[in-house]
Specification:
The chain is α+β, with helices and mostly antiparallel strands. Helix content is 30%, strand content 18%. The chain has 14 helices and 21 strands. A six-stranded antiparallel beta sheet has the order 1-2-3-4-8-7. A three-stranded antiparallel beta sheet has the order 9-10-11. α7 packs antiparallel against α8, α7 crosses α9 and α8 packs across α9. The two termini are 31 Å apart.
């Protein structure tokens, strides 16, 4: 049976193998350049390929249509330009000679990436992956048609700077989406204004997924890095990338929004760090926001803010910023290359200094030996009066206070050298930046001169503050949100299909079981029953399994990848249909 096709322009059915649409009159021939899929190509009997949108070192992005639900999608085809030799007449990709292994491994990375994202979308702040199809010796990721305006264009249309509070509100969904990726071990590596979309409600969502090869220099693919937003470790395959890589990029995006200009590119900062502090660019910026961005844009990964939730909380709270600043290591200055004459002069000065030290040590040793011999010769003739002190002053030993911050308190308790020298006054505080038992503050500070027996005050982390997940099944949406907020938890609500078994507008399930302990500030997904009057109009076919998967309980069917907010009927229909592609059945509202 021949696959059903839709016109990718007007979404009307096409007769047979027609190369033009009888409804809108569009001709498909020659619409896409050579080497790409022709307009009208059908994938997996379900998706019709439209015009090419863009191409990068990893693949090609097309417009497209889902034939069963008749809605628009975006299709990303794996096609690494540095590894691919040609496309046959049957659209099959052939790797270059000698690149077969790298072609295959990067293709597997591509498929694994999008299947992993598919398992966590629709999630707030992320462009949803609807399906992953293998065909033509390639892989195709089917993405929702996100819409919205790229953040870089939005900023051009809104000249000036954005208030920090407004920037936090706009980017909050993106922060939550990136945190969801990190939770399953994924790193985006391409966060920048170009890949962030501003939706109609001025809230942002993140797109632009790619494998590590595309976002790392020297990987074998034609890399795609973003000047000012890519982290320093992305410019070398020798550097390890992690959650802190996305944290750097998010801090750079926030810097652009509140300062009106992008940070200096990391490759340039590594040579000579001339990136101005945010406060010096925008004098009206709160000092703590400038401090947070300075911590988030540090060049060395282990010295910058480590996680996205830490960055967001610091940007939202002056008090949290103060605590975070106290617990972080000081930044190591960047070394710059010295001119050759200057280096030679420096080496000569160093040699002269070492020679002077050797001479001084020799003199001190001779003087010490002479003093010891002198005392030995004159000891019998010494009078009893010599045993009295030459001065009535009593010398009290003084010591430099060690740096206890970052140590586990048990290390101090079990160290006799510390406990015999000082008294310790210990208090505990909650902290989500330091594990339980770690020392996060001390007074006096390290290297302070302190007499033996005096008191040192230590603040020890109690770890993150925990809250008990309440049982909100059956609550209304407003009641559930208030109950979670009262416990310091954040609600993220989604509507689910209701066949009449549930009370409409009430909670039917939550992402955390009642009674479990969760960190304060955790985002709880709350599933709300839709109105039963909404009819299920289409039941898509079950997609064939493309890889073995572990058995996990599936969440209830969602109709919208974003939290429930008022929106127009057209957008709601598109998003509801997009959600259907992942798990049948789906709603048309």
């Amino acid at each position: 049976m021949e696959a059903t096709r839709l016109c990718p322009y007007c979404l009307q059915p096409l007769p047979g193998a027609a190369q033009s649409c009888p409804h809108c009159g569009k001709s498909f021939a020659g619409r896409n350049p050579g080497g790409t899929l022709p307009v009208g190509t059908v994938l997996a009997g379900r998706y019709t390929v439209g015009e090419m949108l863009s191409i990068d070192g990893e693949g090609i992005l097309y417009r497209g249509a889902e034939n069963l639900g008749r809605f628009r999608v975006t299709i990303k085809e794996y096609l690494p330009i540095t590894l691919t030799a040609e496309r046959t007449a049957e659209s099959t990709l052939r790797p270059k000679t000698g690149s077969e292994v790298l072609f295959k491994t990067t293709r597997m990375d591509f498929a694994d990436l999008y299947r992993s994202i598919q398992r966590i979308t629709p999630a707030n702040g992320l462009e949803a992956v609807l399906d992953v199809v293998e065909a033509n010796n390639s892989v195709y990721a089917i993405l929702e048609n996100l819409g919205g305006t790229p953040l870089d264009q939005w900023l051009e249309n809104h000249p000036g700077t954005i208030r920090p509070d407004d920037a936090c509100t706009m980017l909050q969904p993106v922060f939550e989406g990136v945190a969801a990726m990190h939770k399953i071990g994924l790193v985006h590596r391409g966060i920048c204004p170009e890949n962030i979309r501003v939706m109609e409600n001025d809230r942002c969502r993140l797109a632009g997924y790619a494998t590590v090869g595309l976002r790392t220099a020297g990987s074998g693919l034609h890399e795609q890095l973003y000047e000012g937003y890519s982290a320093p470790e992305q410019y070398s395959t020798a550097e390890f990338e992690g959650r802190y890589t996305d944290e750097y990029s998010l801090a750079a995006v926030f810097y652009r929004m509140v300062c009106g200009q992008a940070p200096v590119p990391a490759a340039q900062r590594i040579v000579a760090d001339s990136n101005p502090r945010a406060k010096s660019v925008n004098g009206s910026l709160p000092l703590y926001v400038s401090q947070v961005l300075q911590l988030g844009l540090r060049l060395r990964p282990m010295e910058r803010i480590q996680t996205v939730p830490q960055l967001y909380q610091a940007l939202s709270s002056k008090e949290y910023t103060a605590e975070l600043t106290r617990t972080m290591k000081p930044e190591t200055p960047v070394r710059t290359a010295q001119p050759e004459p200057e280096r030679k002069e420096h080496l000569l000065s160093l040699k002269a200094l070492l020679a002077g030290i050797v001479i001084l040590l020799s003199i001190l040793i001779l003087l010490t030996l002479w003093s010891v011999l002198s005392q030995h010769i004159h000891r019998p003739a010494a009078s009893a009066a010599e045993s009295e002190p030459a001065s009535s002053e009593v010398m009290v030993p003084q010591n430099l206070v060690p740096n206890f911050i970052g140590m586990d308190y048990t290390q101090v308790q079990n160290n006799r050298e510390y406990t015999s020298m000082y008294l310790f006054y210990v208090t505990e505080e909650y902290s989500d930046t330091a594990p339980a038992g770690q020392i996060i503050q001390q007074e006096p500070s390290a290297d302070t001169v302190l007499k033996a027996g005096e008191t040192i005050r230590l603040v020890v982390s109690k770890g993150p503050q925990m809250a008990e997940m309440p049982n909100i099944i059956g609550f209304t949406q407003d009641g559930a949100v208030k109950e979670l907020e009262a416990r310091g938890l954040v609600a993220s609500c989604f509507m689910v299909v209701n066949d009449g078994s549930y009370a409409s507008g009430c909670v039917v399930r939550t992402s955390e079981e009642p009674g479990t302990k969760v960190e304060v500030g955790t985002v709880i997904t709350v599933y709300i029953a839709a109105d039963p009057s909404v009819q299920i109009t289409v039941t898509p076919e079950e997609p064939a399994a493309t890889e073995p998967t572990t058995t996990e309980p599936a969440p209830p069917e969602t109709t919208d990848p974003t939290p429930t907010e008022p929106e127009d009927k057209t957008d709601a229909t598109t998003k509801a249909e997009a959600g259907a592609l992942q798990r049948p059945p789906f709603l048309l509202v």
